[in-house]
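FAQ: What does the model actually see?

It sees only this:
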Amino acid sequence: MPASIRHLLEMIRFSHTLFALPFALLSALMAWAANQHCTPPVAFRWQELAGILLCMAFARSAAMAFNRLADRRIDAFNPRTRNRHLPAGVLSAASVAWFTVVCSAGFVLSTLLFLPNRLPLYAAVPLLLFLFGYSFAKRYTWLSHFWLGAALMLAPLAAWVAVRGELASAPLLLGTAVLVWVAGFDIIYACQDVAFDQGAGLHSVPVALGVAGSLRVAALCHLGMVAVLAALPWAYGSFGTIYYVGVAAIAALLLYEHWLVRPDDLTRVNRAFFHVNAVVSLGLLAVGAVDLLV
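And it is asked to produce this:
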């Protein structure tokens, strides 16, 4: 059993939850800070934090497991992915299906048990269906990268709704930054599979535009992220100098990411994808928290 759990967590790359989780936590922190300006002020509730953390973990785990199920036959023919747990036979399709069901149920139950606001519960199943839908997008459209971005965009939107019970322009801007950021680095990552995707009849920006054109689109996406983050204080006035310094640092990190990846050299894609983007998400959470709490 411990080995099976370890293989399941490896399959869904549980550690990569940190890509979206910092944005959800930042959005929740912004919402809790905004609650202090209500009349009367609304106190911080620990169960909301627990609910957000559990919902993030369960929703991402369910979505990743479903994605591995949906792509297992494609992965078996792709040299880059044929050693993943399902095509390699390390895990069975039945065990991954059960894991998906358990995580989906855990997500819905977390909204019910930990979040006093009922809106997340009502949105839980439609949200899961949207996350699962991404797994089939690349079979039909090169916009799949933006579907993935929209899926992760839901993290800050949902966290804000969980705390405030409403949508607002601030989480929408933060979510838009997440959308274009994720789409940009997913386009970079997809450049590794351009030849395979062409042969398999799959759709992506690299298939449509080639590697060089795709890297330009990814750069535009990341430029858009920096622009949206820079505009966020106009909608959320509690951010100041510390936040802007963080946005400048993120711009520098994204420039470094695009310096790492060249049309004729994709050997450093993993460093750009996993290392730089982890620093971007965690760094923004850190500077945002410091700016709000200091």
